[in-house]
Amino acid sequence: MTDTIEETGLSPADEQAFADRVRAFLEANCRRTGDRQGTIGDEDPEGPSAARDFQAALADAGLAGLTYPTDFGGAGLTKRHQEVFNREVEGWHLPNTPLSISHGMCLPMLNQFGTSEQKARFMADNIRGTTIWCQMFSEPGAGSDVASLAMKATRDGDEWILEGQKVWTSGAHYCDYGIVVARTDPEQPKHQGVTMFIVDLRQPGVEVRPLRQISGGSGFNEVFFTEARTPADWQLGDRGQGWNLAVAMLMFERVSIGAGGGSALNADRTPGLIEAARARGQAGDPVVRQGLADLWIRERIRGYIGQRIRAAVAEGRVPGPEGSIAKLNGAILARRVRDVSLAIAGSSAQAWDAGDDAGDRWAVGCLSTAGISIAGGTDEVQRNIIGERVLGLPKEPDPWKGTAWEDVPRS
Amino acid sequence: MDFTYDEAQHAVADLAEQILTDRLDTERLLDLEAALEEGGSWFDADLWSALAGAGLVGIALGEDVGGGGLDEVALAVLLRAQGGHVAPLPLLPHLVASLALDRLGSPEQRADLLPGCVDGSRILTVAVQEYLAEDVHRPGLRFEEGRLHGTKIVVEGVEQASQALVTATGDAGPGLFLVDLADDGITRTPGRSTRLETVWQLDLADVPSEPVGDAGGVDWLVNRLMMALCATQLGVTETALRLTAEYTSQREQFGRPLATFQAVTQRLADQFVNVGGIRLATLSAAWRLANGRDAGEDLLIAKWWASERATEVANATQHCHGGMGVARDYPLHRYTLWNKHLATSLGAGTSSLRSLGALLAAE
Ligand SMILES: Cc1cc2nc3c(=O)[nH]c(=O)nc-3n(C[C@H](O)[C@H](O)[C@H](O)COP(=O)(O)OP(=O)(O)OC[C@H]3O[C@@H](n4cnc5c(N)ncnc54)[C@H](O)[C@@H]3O)c2cc1C
Q: For residue A39, which atom of ligand 1 is closest to its CA?
């Protein structure tokens, strides 16, 4: 708990003044949330250009990139400001879902691991939404086992040449830059031969093909690299350190999926569902009531987990395996929300008018839930991490441990 | 009964399987879906003709009207095959509506409508569900002096059907009523189902209608609809599980097939048990309906399994596919969408659970 001035660096009066500023901005620029379940990978109805406009307004109001240094386009404020901001935005719809990966994962990576030149060059535009960034890890052959990735990076003078394919890349169709992991040293074991790069997606060697999602939208893509190039000084971290950086980025991702305060994905659903149950005359139904009570308990627990982790992130620490706990918990919660919603929604979960917003919300929300258990590492992958790194259980034996990546047979 | 098909049921299953396999591959489904996006309808007309031509569409109708003379179990067999191939056809409402007409209708109604129902030239549908009404046994739609007034939702096959069997309540209580879908008093509003077909809201204002059968028709119909939904879902979950077993046996991560991870194997084994439950409960209910026994309890059990457990099967099969499970480019998504549509038809699983509780607690 943080309430003393020594701990927070903020007097109650300052805190109130900041909260008022945030609220004034929200009232001028946002609307109240409906109960649409935001999710990763799905197209935001307002789209990236609305997100860019919104983000620019946020930056103009001095409310973007709150805890990042002013030198790099941030607001230079404290983690307490971030907490206040998160608290104030609850119940508001911020049309910035298309920026969630850019800000939740790419920005902290730049801040944490970028060189001063990289920070100076990229951070301010990223914070303002002038550029949008995506995460490019998964490949057709490397999903849960992402460390086995095959995309090749070869050095050519002052540049790297990238060859290969990424898949499920959320947002690549509107993004300007990607953070990509590629294999620079195939003679090393799989975890040691990869390096992370910033890559400009707006070049001829990069082809983005949208993939349709089950919910109907096209939120993710296949991306083909054919002799794509990136400058040598756009490498993030050291050569061969790509896996460690990827793990850090995945933890930022898990935190932003499982504990990112203020995002549509993390808004509490129970109050809206209670209203829906009342409107449908089901608030007295014992099955529905039990479901709602269970949800409420889980949302409170998520709140506590989130608070702890966000505090750590705001202090500039890379979250550890607690990111996996948050992510797993968030995915389980999303499924509960879906099930309780279905029980309440009845036939409007089954069909909806083209113009029926409520019906559309239920349906999209329900169909998108599955992706939450998959993106950012599946539930099983999180459980394995928790087992090995939190509980200290022995690792699954790997017959190829220590073998050069290029010598491991793969289908 | 031992839940295996008898000779006639086997013949139905084999024939349906053969026609569906021959005529409905992924390419054909993609073509139909593309046409749907261009404003076409969710209906494979060639497939419909083929099934009708083989005598399957009228398989449970009386031999006097040209039907195959079989019963509810044959309907279950046929719908299971449809679900297994996710065939875009309003087979379920047609089969149940024409069966109702055959078993409950007057000689004139039968002679008039059923021959077309057998040869496939006439398609019927049912209009049962209403807004915010969990109890389909007590329709809010009114029948007064030969006319219907009120609203039905999620009606399927409206573009193909000429008549609908509508549930309504009149002075004599709930009953079944036949309406001509071309009637001027019917306003149709299209909606979209998760299965991607267009489903309709029908607003009936003073629509002339004739009753089909006596009181008790609604329960009769709802029982068959429940069984038919479960049978379709049985086919859907069976194929989803088969696709997943194949996929996880082939796809490798960490240098080995996914199916060798026990988290995957055990989850899929649970789904096998879930599907088995749907199969047994559904076939038992169908058999009881066909043999004039009380099927109430079996139906509620089947519907609950088919809503809750099939949802579990859908979630598990989707999840074990990783990213592929949420992509439209891979066939599994159709099964996920069908499951979702069917699981919420006639109310979600919890409503069956409630009714079952009431049934068991009753003296
Ligand atoms: C909506 C969405 C958005 C995404 N966005 C991005 C993005 O922006 N950038 C990006 O790089 N990637 C993205 N992804 C990809 C995501 O990270 C991968 O889908 C995920 O890591 C799983 O990989 P896979 O799809 O290859 O499934 P697989 O790894 O093939 O897994 C299939 C199934 O096997 C199980 N499994 C695998 N290994 C084990 C094991 N050891 N033990 C037990 N079970 C196991 C999995 O849990 C899963 O159920 C996105 C995915 C989704 C669904």
A: 1
Determine the topology of domain B218-362 in CATH.
Butyryl-CoA Dehydrogenase, subunit A; domain 3 (1.20.140)
CATH homologous superfamily of B7-119: Acyl-CoA dehydrogenase/oxidase, N-terminal domain (1.10.540.10)
Domain ranges of chain B: 7-119, 124-214, 218-362
Predicted complex ipTM: 0.89
pLDDT digit string, tens, across residues A331-371:
888 888 888 887 777 655 555 554 455 555 556 666 778 88
The domain defined by B124-214 carries CATH number 2.40.110.10: yes
A386 touches chain B (CB under 8 A): no
Cα(B10) to ligand 1 centroid in Å equals 40
Tell which residue, A176, A374, A340, has the closest CA to residue A257.
Answer: A374
- My answer on whether A77 and A143 are in the same domain is no
8 Å CB contact of A145 and B192: no
CA distance A342 to A348: 9
Going by pLDDT thresholds of 50, 70 and 90, the confidence category of residue B112 is very high
Closest C-alpha among A330, A323, A324, A326 to residue A369:
A330
Q: Chain A closest CA to B344's CA: distance in Å? A: 6
SS3 A237: coil
In A, residues 161-200, which contact B (CB 8 Å cutoff)?
Answer: 167-168
Take atom 33 of ligand 1 and give the residue whose Cα is closest.
B320
Tens of pLDDT, residues B313-323: 999 999 999 99
Phi, psi of B5 (to 5 degrees): -75, 145
- A263 and A368 together in one domain: yes
pLDDT digits (tens, 9 = 90+) for B36-83: 888 888 999 999 999 999 999 999 999 999 999 999 999 999 999 999
- Spatial separation of the C-alpha atoms in residues A306 and A317, rounded to whole Å: 14
Task: Residue A177: give the domain boundaries.
Answer: 133-244
Tell me the C-alpha distance between B129 and B110, whole Å.
Answer: 25
